[in-house]
Write a structure and sequence with these properties.
The complex is a heterodimer of chains A (248) and B (284).
Chain A: H1 3-16, E1 25-37, E2 44-55, E3 58-69, E4 76-89, E5 92-103, E6 109-121, E7 125-138, H2 140-146, E8 154-156, E9 160-168, E10 176-183, E11 197-205, E12 210-221, E13 229-242
Antiparallel strand pairs in A: 1-2, 1-13, 2-3, 3-4, 4-5, 5-6, 6-7, 7-8, 7-9, 9-10, 10-11, 11-12, 12-13
Chain B: H1 2-22, H2 38-51, E1 55-58, E2 63-69, H3 78-89, E3 94-97, H4 106-115, E4 124-126, H5 137-145, E5 150-155, E6 160-165, H6 174-188, E7 195-198, H7 216-228, E8 233-236, E9 243-247, E10 250-254, E11 266-273, E12 276-283
Parallel strand pairs in B: 1-5, 2-3, 3-4, 6-7, 7-8, 8-10
Antiparallel strand pairs in B: 2-11, 5-6, 9-10, 11-12
Helix pairs in contact in B: 2-6
């Protein structure tokens, strides 16, 4: 997707933060990643922002990612949109989400993912399961420059499983928390189902609507090949602002 | 409710640690720790390369054949012997063996080496695969075959083709090997007509398997690199079932396994005729 269109959509979602509906709850999540991996040639820095708009059982969210320091010569490196709905099955609360993510990861190529996920959070545990479809495609510049035919411009992978399982030390409404999560799913990077990532996290509620958080992610390669290797790590620090429009 | 939950977690941890300790002498230890990291293997390969010049296969005309196989998983050697026999009768200029040649045990390596034709009768180029690393298998591979990251060239009367062999047995090239590959393509690719890349682990997931592919970030970098430097073919094994896709300007090929007892056991025949490439999946 064109970066201008992507940013317009994110901006449009941000406008909803203006609270046209007093029962709605807009939110903003901004974070920065810094780390290194086997392909980053040293430190990489990315930043991302999400704007969300919750009304009743529904949540709309869009986000973008910018590469501040990387070797891939791209600045705008991700855009996502998702829609969620909360529901219950025999008093068992669940959230179902449909999502679409586009990541123009180099000057030549982009990756697109779309899929659905189901997640549940209890006081201490969180679970997520889902599936998505991944497509790699050449960008127009590359198609022209390398004379790539239409049939060779895209490649589709088979459906990939999404999963997360995590544990938080404290109940969700506590003023601070820390936890651990095993997953193959991040906002702009979905690893293959056989490449799990480990995340340690901590958060602190500065005030009722403001939460700051810090995460440490570790990635390996080859675990299910019985030949595990270090791949990379990064730290993420961010702030979530859950804006209250209506008085409680 | 909190105490039983913590108790359950403690029990889970103790059971997991106990199971992990049982894996100490098993290939399963590779889930948790690496026998030899990819960077360490790469360093050793470079040491080997410093005293063993890259080979040049000279062919008499601009029409030659390479045979490629992977996943022989010796133990069994019936298909391996057939492959070498066919390679000789087809006058293959060389054979490339893209990993999982053994199951990693010293006895498997010894058996494989016994069946490997001598280099004078058939030039062969082995690459390590993830199963070859089991049971400290890299030590066996290195002592018998040496480097798993190297190049060789095929020189015809009119052109030279570049063959790059990589070690991605652990589902990553590692930062050192990736830098080596990038520098190689930047500095040498333009001197050659065709460029073929061989490695064990397949890059794309065309079907569900329990085995691992390179992390998405690495795949992204490799796709970009292979396009920029006009890599013609990327040939892998690992998946045990053949597949191929022409993406951009590169063919990404996954071979069937050569392992005995498989109904789809086979190999890949690559013919280069006046620079044009023709590959076929062959079966026994």
């Amino acid at each position: 997707m064109n970066p201008k269109i992507s940013l317009s959509l994110v901006f449009g979602t941000l406008l909803l933060v203006g609270c046209p509906d007093l029962s709605a709850q807009p939110g903003i999540n901004i974070y920065t990643d810094f780390g290194e991996n086997n392909v980053s040639q040293g430190l990489f820095i990315k930043t991302a922002g999400f704007a969300s708009y919750k009304f009743g059982k529904y949540l709309l969210e869009s986000g973008f990612q910018l590469d501040l320091k990387n070797t891939n010569n791209t600045f705008f490196s991700g855009f996502s949109m998702s829609g969620s709905r909360n529901f219950k099955i025999t008093n068992f609360p669940l959230e179902i989400t449909g999502f679409w993510i586009s990541t123009p990861f180099s000057e030549l190529l982009r990756e697109t993912n779309w899929g659905a996920r189901l997640n549940r959070e209890s006081n201490h545990f969180e679970y997520l399961i889902g599936a998505h479809f991944r497509t790699y495609a050449f960008r127009q510049k590359a198609i022209r420059e390398y004379g790539i035919g239409q049939s060779a411009s895209k490649i589709h992978e088979t459906m990939n499983l999404l999963y997360s399982v995590g544990y938080q030390l404290k109940p969700r409404n506590n003023s601070w928390n820390a936890g651990i999560l095993l997953t193959n799913y991040d906002n702009f990077m979905i690893e293959q189902e056989t490449n799990p990532m480990l995340r340690l996290n901590g958060l602190y509620k500065l005030s009722s609507p403001l939460i700051i958080y810090l995460q440490a992610w570790y990635k390996s390669a080859g675990a299910t090949n019985l030949a595990v290797n270090y791949f990379g790590f990064f730290f993420r620090t961010g702030i979530i602002w859950n804006i209250r429009c209506a008085k409680d | 409710m909190e105490y039983p939950m913590r108790k359950r977690l403690i029990i889970l941890f103790v059971v997991s640690a106990s199971i992990a300790s049982c894996f100490k002498d098993s290939a399963l230890i590779g889930i948790f720790i690496s026998y030899k990291s990819v960077n360490l293997r790469f360093d050793q390969s470079m040491i080997w390369n410093s005293t063993h010049p890259f080979k040049v296969i000279e062919v008499p005309n601009d029409d030659y054949t390479l045979l490629t196989m992977g996943d022989s998983h010796v133990g069994g050697t019936t298909n391996l012997d057939r492959f070498f026999s066919i390679s000789k009768t087809a006058y293959a200029s060389a054979v490339i063996m893209v990993g999982d040649l053994t199951n990693g045990r010293a006895g498997d390596y010894a058996l494989f080496e016994q069946h490997l034709p001598d280099q004078d009768s058939l030039a062969s180029f082995p690459i390590v695969g993830n199963h070859d690393l089991n049971y400290e298998g890299w030590n066996e591979f290195y002592s018998r075959f040496g480097s798993s990251t190297y190049i060789f060239t095929v020189k015809t009367p009119v052109a030279k083709d570049l063959c790059i062999c990589l070690d991605n047995a652990g589902a990553t090239l590692g930062d050192k090997q990736l830098a080596w590959l990038t520098n190689l393509l930047e500095t040498m690719r333009s001197n050659y007509r065709n460029c073929f890349v061989f490695a064990h682990v397949n890059l794309f997931r065309f079907r569900h398997t329990e085995s691992t592919n390179p992390p998405v970030e690495e795949l992204q970098v490799l796709m970009d690199l292979f396009t920029r430097y006009h890599v013609d073919l990327v040939i892998n094994g690992h998946d045990h079932r053949h597949n191929s896709a022409f993406f951009g300007i590169t063919w990404y090929i996954i071979m069937d396994a050569l392992e005995d007892g498989l109904s789809n056991a086979g190999y890949l025949k690559l013919n280069v005729n006046n620079g044009k490439l023709l590959f076929t999946f062959e079966y026994f």
